[in-house]
Amino acid sequence: MAYISGGLAMLRSVVNSLPTSEQKIANYILSTPETVVTMTVKQLAEGSKTSSAAVIRLCKSLDLKGFQELKMRIAGDVQKQSSAEYRDINEGESVHHIIGQMTQNGIQIIKETEEMLRLEDVEEAVATIHEAGSIHLFGIGASGLVAADGQQKFLRAGRYAFCLQDPHMAYTTLSNVKENDVAIAVSFSGETNEVIQYLRLAKKNGMKTISITKYGSSTISQLAEIPLYTSATQEAMIRSAATSSRLAQLHVVDILFMSYVSNYYEEVVESLDRSRAAIDEQK
């Protein structure tokens, strides 16, 4: 990104779950973002009829380093061109329109996910994966498909990667892990019960833990040592399975994998070549 952004998307994601005073500040910022970028903490507190302490608490609730980072992100948002809103698909719409709308939704959630990811968190996750003896990925439903995609990628990179869809089998694999192994938990809501139990068991067994959830505080993101976030934009009401959320999760897995390949290129590229050759031999 040429400039840091994502402040408004973060606020929209969590505004309804914030305490009253922080919610007032968030709504004030969302209503007049252009004016907030030049304000001090005191001025924002006065404008939103709250307190300076509440402004600081809001920044902490957003997991930001401080008010300056919030202002920088909002300033980046203000500089960007406004994008189309997410939209549900209605009965009787043309295939042409559905193609355009789903494409727009996909582009938007990927861009918002870029804004939610912290560079330092991604770097730490990549280093943790490199140091791990084995990688265990777990998710339920559409998130399970994302976990399976991660397994396929890291297997081809020469890593021991496991993804078992059955929760009992997945829990069983954690009984023989080593402390440098890593568990990657995937859940859009961050509240999927089976994934919570999986992460708790992983931590109990001393594993390093990484989560991929929507932005905001959740049980899974709080349990994980390294929380990675996607956009928290809600899915369309009519759907047979996750669409935008799955795309965002796959995007995070792709970022982790490509960063891993780039950082450890010499040791990974040989494994990738061997796996490609093995597949080509079967054709």
Automatic annotation (TrEMBL):
Q: Which domain of life is it from?
A: Bacteria
| Keyword NADP in annotation | no
CDD domains (UniProt xref): SIS_RpiR
**Could you tell me which residue ranges the HTH rpiR-type domain spans?**
5-81
Q: Which InterPro entries match?
A: Homeodomain-like_sf, HTH_RpiR, RpiR-like, RpiR-like_SIS, SIS_dom, SIS_dom_sf, WH-like_DNA-bd_sf
User: Which is an annotated Pfam family here?
Assistant: SIS
Q: Which Gene3D superfamilies match?
A: Glucose-6-phosphate isomerase like protein, domain 1, Winged helix-like DNA-binding domain superfamily/Winged helix DNA-binding domain
Instruction: Name the UniProt key words of this record, in alphabetical order.
Output: DNA-binding, Transcription, Transcription regulation
Q: Does the keyword Transcription regulation apply?
A: yes
Locate the SIS domain: which residues?
Answer: 125-266
For this entry, the protein name equals MurR/RpiR family transcriptional regulator
**Source species of the chain:** Halobacillus naozhouensis
